[in-house]
UniProtKB/TrEMBL annotation, chain A:
InterPro entries the record matches: TEDC1, TEDC1_dom
Organism phylogeny: Eukaryota, Metazoa, Spiralia, Lophotrochozoa, Mollusca
Organism of this sequence: Potamilus streckersoni
Annotated signal sequence range: none
Designated name of the protein: Tubulin epsilon and delta complex protein 1 domain-containing protein
Domain of life: Eukaryota
UniProtKB/TrEMBL annotation, chain B:
Keywords, sorted A to Z: GTP-binding, Microtubule, Nucleotide-binding
Residue ranges constituting the Tubulin/FtsZ 2-layer sandwich domain according to the UniProt record: 291-426
GO biological process, one term: microtubule-based process
Signal peptide location: none
Cross-referenced CDD domains: epsilon_tubulin
Molecular-function GO terms, alphabetical: GTP binding
PROSITE patterns per the UniProt record, alphabetical: TUBULIN
Organism: Potamilus streckersoni
Recorded superkingdom: Eukaryota
Lineage per the UniProt record: Eukaryota, Metazoa, Spiralia, Lophotrochozoa, Mollusca
Protein name as it appears in the record: Tubulin epsilon chain
Tubulin/FtsZ GTPase domain span: 56-289
Family: Belongs to the tubulin family.
PANTHER family linked to this entry: TUBULIN
Cellular component per GO, a single term: microtubule
UniProtKB/TrEMBL annotation, chain C:
Tree of life domain: Eukaryota
Domain Tubulin/FtsZ GTPase: 62-261
Localization, UniProt: Cell projection, Cilium; Cytoplasm, Cytoskeleton, Microtubule organizing center, Centrosome, Centriole; Nucleus
Function in brief: Acts as a positive regulator of hedgehog signaling and regulates ciliary function.
Official protein name in the record: Tubulin delta chain
SUPFAM superfamilies, alphabetized: Tubulin C-terminal domain-like, Tubulin nucleotide-binding domain-like
Species: Potamilus streckersoni
Membership in a protein family: Belongs to the tubulin family.
Length: 459, 487, 461
């Protein structure tokens, strides 16, 4: 058992190193025996790990969330997420939302999550050399990060007339545009400087896969006082890797122990619980009880509708065939063009997000410009470079759906897709413009002696 | 830097031209003491190596090359040989070359039709060729200055023919005409005919006309001789640089130029005034200054409506005093003088008429604050049209005229010119009512009787247009209401 | 390793490219770079900062406005980040010679464009004829200048409103800049002509220019010759005022705005008064783009050494200059008060940027500039004023302040100018000269509409 304890302690250490709230190994032991003291810490741990899976990190947002959400909300959120992941344990679903009991179920859920979601491997991926091209860690210190969002929301809800509100929004919009342009300038400067660093350090290299120094390395050369800090970071990183390595060697022990937990649970599954289980609804599914009836009804409706429209379409087709001979070729073309335009316009106004899935939520990565020369020894890094190139593209304002794809995407197709998108935006914009202009004219008609002079670009 | 070509036609035009080139050489010699061929000189002169028979131009380049031999960008046209051949014998012969001349022997007999319809057609190709040749020597030809009289036959007739030719072949090059109007007691009996026939062409074809009245020149010359009686008898020096400048600063004088005083002709002092007008008008385009005025700015600012392009000019000071202490007062006096009646080159009084626009072309050590002070001081006594109450254009050229610390040339688009035109019309009508001498004109091929009536009509309409504007002096028509923005 | 160090020190500072257009723009430009270089090379003892700090500052000024790298060893003087455009060669030749003669800086070769023939005060000739003709060459020069910058902070273009080249070609080039550098910041400094006396068609040229700049520039910084002239006579005691004196005042104003100063937002931050950041603060609302600069103190060199100022007094004057809309510290109307409804209406602002240079910068109270009554009700609270500081003494003033303001200040003159232009337009005087080059009456009307709208916008502020 002593060995088990060591392994569990190792696990808690690893968890803590990756940002979760501190948890004692003792909690695990208590949970095995379904002790209630272990319930709350385990909920919290589960919650944090889920957050990690969703966002790739554990930051202060999750810590704040834990204190701000009610226990009930938290429990339901965790249950739902677990179900989404595929953890369909009935007894877990039936755990009380007040977080008073059920630590063993929680422990099992935790183990399941650790195992199926490869959380430990993910932790390992996160460990990377601090001597990368990122020197942010050092420079961020000086910046004031507290943006006063409450002030903003306060004044936005202030008492303003409609016109004043429009003015305010116009100004805020302007500020946003200016900020974006500043960001753009900074970004291109960063890329430029990075390129120059790489270029001027050609031939000097610390690692094998690069032929130049990274920005970080150059930075450290210029500011050797930061070397200590880096060294500390490296040591810490090393320690984390050590721990993970130990875990890999010894995780069998943990899983064996988990088996014993599972056994215990099966043994303790009492009849009373068995009965209870059948009567309690599984709240977190959020499915109304009469859903099946509704679905049946909907299906019937749909079928009826299809039948109805099919007959109409048949009728129309007949009409079309008969009328077709009466229409000349050019007329036909015009008609088709008009219909197509109308369809395109309608589709545009319906919103384009549904179609090709242009996603903007892709996790943003800093671009890397890597000097690339045709060198056979660099083949292994090719993939990485291409990804980097696409990232650079993104940084220059070309947003795309590259994130999340693991294979390099052809830039041509990307450009084609964007052009298509742009075209649709143009259709939408011109449609809107037409509408507004007509509206303006209508408004102007109501005022005597006034004419509406459109800006020249519109005319 | 742009270049200009001077086209001098007829006896009067060539005499003025002769003085102009003389003074231009003197001016550049005074400014450019190193004898290098630079941008300012290049605007009126070519630099050639005269050892060759058909010399190629030496370009300005860095502006540091030495002057080899200067050739005037000039075209000399006269239908009698006298003036031109004398010029080609005189000291200025070096700056002209025979390829720039077009002469005949028989003259135009003070007949516009002979000059315009006969010689014009006869010499068309030759004129076109000479102009083309001169134009090709310019890398950016901006302006033709056409000098001629209105009263004679060659100047008014052939001069306006050249104007038409230039408009046709060089539509983008500005055409400035300096036209000398005959006085009422002109000894040429047909001068009113010639003037009115020529004016129709000027009104239609020129970009800008600087009319000069003979009588005004006579009066100015007399005024100066009264002030400086020594001018006729005083010591003369031939050296510009070391000479006694103050004594020889009258704008009628030509001391220091190539033309020796003993050669001076009776009209030279009058012609010098006109020559100075040209020099001062182009100075701001040639030399540096804190507020340059290019030639194209003159029409842009002074001609609000295309046909109303007759600019009344005046120059001051007429001579400089040697007393340096008087300078500040002298400066303000210069501005006052320029607006006085007896400094105008037309026998009219702009102060009693309506200004459409006015340009102040200042040379020498004058700053913008001096100009502004004087505008403020003078504008109370001047009346501007209601839509151009602040119709002032200023040019500041830092290079003063030779021998003077500063000078002022005003160019005014003023409705007062109509009175000179009305006088001219009266004289014209006196003859025309009797149909006197008409047959001398109509027997020339191409001349029709309608030319007279249409020219008269053109003159009438110009007078009318100026008169209509002058009527607005006291009761301006209300402007359209401004656009209102709905908020 | 030395190489790397060099790179890193010479970058990090955003650079500004200056476009000098027309006679006025070129003359101001020449003067402006001399002002910068003079300030950069001032001795530490004269500007009262440590030698180390002074060196840093010098380096910052130089890399902001000049390039120092050279292909050959021939140039060791800094070269201005500037592109010079004029349609006639005289002025450019003159300022280039003058710059070279200083021995402290020069203009880059091949970044000057001039032709033989000016625009003749005709805006249409500049905009419709010269503009398209010179576009390619000028844009190439600008592109080349831009490529010399690690961080292109933006463009400063200098023109007059009155002439033809500066205004016409200037408006055209600004449009091209906007197309070519859609993400850059463009500030157009325009010199407003005297009410009378410079160019007769100046009001036409001015409305055509302003209306076009309003579409393409981020901000239009207005300097009125009449105001500058008055500063020369009343504050600087100059008897015979030339354009050189006027341009000196302009450069003092521009430099007090553009020279390095640090915001309070970030303490240890070398990206001081970044062009974009200041513009974001001042002109983020697209309807309001007109800026003016009010300076205090301004006096002749001889008086400077006898005067001492307290920040409190300076700022009190400056604030009154703002609300009473005085162009200088003399003759301010102290009767104007903020928004009591009665009496004279004060000059309403949309945004202000305050630049303080000189000694004793700590603990200066600038709260009087953030009074909500100064600003429209719809701006976010406490966002009216941004403050930038620089402990280095500027232009021998122990303490000096400059207020760049987006306020109603230039509207009176603008309204006056529109009125005069409209009056002339009613009789169609001079219009034929513009039509000759392809401008139509409708174009004039467009410009009138745009500017009447601007006036109306500011009046409802």
């Amino acid at each position: 058992m002593a060995q088990v304890r060591e392994v569990i302690e190792l696990l808690t250490k690893i968890l803590r190193e990756n940002g979760t709230t501190k948890i004692k190994a003792e909690i695990f032991r208590l949970a095995k025996f379904d002790k209630d003291e272990a319930v709350v810490p385990l909920w919290k741990l589960l919650f944090e790990l889920i957050y990690f899976l969703e966002n790739g990190t554990i930051d202060d947002v999750v810590i704040r969330a834990f204190s701000q959400l009610t226990t009930e909300e938290m429990a339901i959120y965790v249950k739902q997420k677990m179900q989404n992941y595929g953890f369909l344990s009935r007894s877990f679903s039936l755990l009380p939302n007040d977080m008073l009991t059920g630590s063993r179920e929680l422990l099992l859920a935790l183990a399941w999550l650790l195992c199926t979601k490869n959380i430990i491997e993910k932790f390992m991926e996160k460990c990377s050399s601090p001597i990368d091209d990122d020197i942010y860690e050092f420079q961020r210190d000086g910046l004031d990060q507290s943006t006063n969002s409450s002030q903003l929301s306060h004044s936005l809800t202030g008492k303003l007339t409609a016109v004043q509100k429009v003015q305010q929004l116009q100004q805020l919009n302007g500020k946003l545009r200016f900020s974006l342009r500043q960001l753009y300038a900074l970004q291109s400067e960063r890329t430029r400087i990075q390129h120059r660093i790489h270029e001027s350090t050609q031939g000097v290299s610390l690692s094998g896969d690069k032929k130049h120094l990274s920005v970080m390395e150059v930075y450290l050369l210029r500011n050797p006082e930061h070397l200590k800090k880096i060294l500390r970071l490296l040591e810490k990183d090393n320690e984390r890797l050590q721990n993970l390595l130990h875990w890999k060697e010894q995780e069998d022990v943990f899983w064996k122990w988990m088996e014993s937990v599972l056994d215990m649970r099966l043994k303790n599954l009492s009849q009373s619980e068995q009965e209870e289980r059948d009567t309690k609804p599984m709240v977190h599914y959020n499915i109304p009880p009469d859903i099946i009836g509704q679905m049946h009804a909907a299906r019937k409706n749909l079928e009826a509708a299809i039948m109805k429209y099919e007959s109409i379409i048949e009728h129309l087709e007949e009409l079309w065939e008969t009328k077709r001979r009466a229409i000349t070729e050019p007329e036909l073309n015009n008609l088709l063009a008009a219909i197509n335009e109308e369809i395109a316009y309608q589709r545009a106004t319906l919103g384009i997000d549904h179609e090709d899935g242009f996603r903007y939520e892709g996790r943003y990565q800093e671009p890397r410009l890597v000097l690339f020369k045709n060198d056979p020894s660099m083949k292994s890094t090719n993939l990485r470079q291409q990804r980097s190139e696409s990232n650079t593209l993104q940084a220059f304002g070309v947003l795309g759906s590259l994130e999340g794809l693991d294979m390099p995407t052809d830039i041509q197709t990307e450009i084609a897709a964007l052009e298509k998108y742009l075209h649709r935006m143009e259709i939408e914009a011109s449609g809107k413009q037409r509408g507004y202009l007509a509206e303006l004219d209508k408004l102007a008609e109501r005022i005597p002696d006034a004419i509406c002079i459109q800006p020249k670009t519109v005319r | 830097m742009t270049q200009s070509i001077v086209v001098q036609v007829g006896q009067c035009g060539n005499q003025i031209g002769c003085q102009f080139w003389d003074l231009a050489l003197r001016e550049h010699a005074a400014v450019n003491k190193n004898g290098v061929y630079d941008e300012p000189i290049s605007s009126f002169f070519r630099n050639v190596d005269s050892r060759y028979n058909d010399p190629v131009d030496i370009p300005v380049g860095t502006g540091k090359g030495k002057i080899k031999s200067l050739k005037a960008r000039a075209i000399l046209v006269d239908m009698e040989e006298g003036v031109v051949s004398e010029m080609m014998k005189g000291p200025l012969r070096e700056v002209f070359d025979f390829k720039q001349l077009i002469t005949d022997v028989s003259g135009s007999g003070n007949n516009w039709a002979v000059g315009h319809k006969m010689y014009g057609v006869q010499y068309h190709d030759q004129l076109s060729e000479v102009v083309r040749r001169s134009a090709e020597f310019c890398d950016c030809l901006q302006c033709f200055f056409i000098l001629h009289s209105m009263g004679g036959g060659t100047g008014s007739g052939l001069g306006t023919y050249v104007l038409n030719l230039l408009e046709e072949e060089y539509p983008d090059v500005y055409r400035f005409v300096t036209a000398v109007y005959p006085s009422a007691e002109d000894d040429v009996i047909t001068s009113p005919y010639n003037s009115v026939l020529a004016m129709r062409e000027l009104t239609e074809r020129a970009d800008c006309i600087l009319p000069v009245e003979n009588q005004a020149l006579v009066d100015i010359v007399n005024k100066i001789s009264e002030a400086i009686p020594s001018l006729k008898t005083g010591k003369r020096t031939y050296n510009t640089v070391s000479g006694d400048i103050k004594a020889n600063t009258a704008i009628t004088g030509s001391d220091g130029g190539l033309v020796k005083p003993k050669d001076e002709k009776p009209f030279d002092s009058m012609n010098n005034i006109v020559a100075n007008l040209l020099l001062n008008m182009t100075s701001s385009a040639r030399f540096e200054g804190s507020l340059n005025v290019d030639l194209n700015e003159i029409t842009m600012n002074l001609v609000p409506f295309p046909r109303l392009h007759y600019l009344v000019s005046s120059q001051s000071p007429l001579y400089a005093t040697a007393d340096v202490n008087l300078l500040p007062r002298q400066l303000d006096q210069m501005f006052s003088d320029a607006f006085s009646k007896d400094h105008q080159l037309m026998k009219t009084d702009p102060k009693h008429s309506l200004y459409l626009a006015c340009a102040l072309m200042v040379r020498g050590d004058v700053e913008i604050s001096d100009v502004r002070r004087n505008i403020e001081r003078l504008k109370g006594s001047l009346r501007f049209i209601h839509w151009n109450q602040e119709g002032w254009k200023t040019g500041l050229c830092s290079v003063p005229p030779v021998g003077q610390p500063h000078s002022l040339l005003t160019l005014a688009n003023n409705t007062c010119v109509q009175y000179s035109f009305i006088d001219l019309r009266d004289r014209f009508l006196k003859l025309y009512k009797r149909k006197a001498h008409i047959h001398h004109y109509t027997h020339i091929t191409g001349m029709e009787a309608e030319d007279f009536s249409m020219s008269l009509e053109s003159l009438n309409s110009i007078i009318q247009e100026y008169a209509d504007l002058e009527k607005q002096m006291n009761n301006p028509s209300p402007p359209e209401p401004r656009l209102q923005v709905l908020t | 390793m030395f190489l790397i160090v060099l790179i890193l020190t010479s970058s990090c500072i955003m650079s500004i490219i200056t476009l000098q257009l027309g006679q006025c723009g070129n003359q101001i430009g020449g003067e402006l770079f001399t002002t910068f270089i003079k300030d950069a090379h001032a001795k530490p003892s004269n500007v009262q900062v440590s030698a180390n700090r002074n060196e840093q500052y010098t380096e910052e000024v130089i890399s902001k406005f000049f390039t120092t790298e050279s292909q050959s060893d021939k140039f060791d003087v800094p070269q201005a980040r500037a592109v010079l455009v004029d349609m006639e060669p005289k002025v450019i030749a003159q300022i280039c010679t003058e710059a070279k003669r200083t021995g402290k800086w020069m203009y880059p070769e091949k970044q000057q464009f001039s032709q033989k023939r000016g625009s003749g005060n005709n805006w249409a000739h500049g905009f419709c004829v010269h503009g398209p003709r010179v576009k390619e060459k000028v844009m190439n020069m600008i592109q080349q200048e831009a490529e010399k910058c690690d961080n292109l902070g933006g463009f400063l273009s200098l023109t007059s409103l009155a002439g033809g080249t500066g205004s016409g070609v200037g408006a055209y080039v600004t449009q091209c800049l906007r197309d070519e550098f859609p993400n850059s910041f463009i500030l157009n400094q325009v010199v407003w002509p005297y009410h009378t006396g410079e160019v007769i068609v100046q009001n036409y040229n001015a409305i055509l220019t302003l209306s076009h700049l309003y579409q393409s520039a981020d901000a239009v910084l207005v300097m009125e010759n009449d105001h500058l002239h008055r500063i020369c006579t009343q504050l600087l005691n100059i008897k015979k005022i030339g354009f050189k004196d006027i341009n000196n005042v302009i450069c003092h104003k521009l430099a007090s705005f553009l020279l390095p100063a640090v915001t309070q937002k970030y303490t240890d931050h070398r990206r001081s008064n970044a062009f974009g950041e200041v513009l974001e603060h001042l002109v983020s609302h697209p309807d309001y783009k007109l800026l003016t600069i009010k300076n205090i103190p301004q006096m002749s060199d001889t008086s400077k050494q006898f005067c001492t100022y307290q920040w409190h007094g300076l700022l009190k004057h400056l604030r009154q200059m703002l609300i009473a809309d005085a162009s200088m510290e003399e003759g301010i109307d102290w009767q104007v008060h903020l928004g009591d409804g009665s009496g004279i209406k004060h000059n309403q602002s949309l945004a202000n940027a305050l630049f303080l240079r000189g000694k004793d910068l700590d603990g200066i109270d600038v709260s009087s500039f953030s009074d909500p009554k100064l600003y429209p009700s719809w701006i976010l609270p406490n966002t009216g004023v941004a403050v930038y500081k620089q402990p280095r003494i500027f232009n021998d003033y122990e303490k000096s302040a400059a207020l760049v303001t987006n306020s109603r200040s230039p509207i009176g003159s603008l309204n006056h100018m529109i009125g005069k232009a409209w009056n002339m337009f009613s009789s169609r005087a001079y219009v034929y000269q513009y039509e000759k080059h392809g401008l139509t009456e409708e174009d004039f009307l467009d410009s009138f509409v745009t500017l009447e709208q601007v006036v109306a916008n500011y009046n409802t502020l």
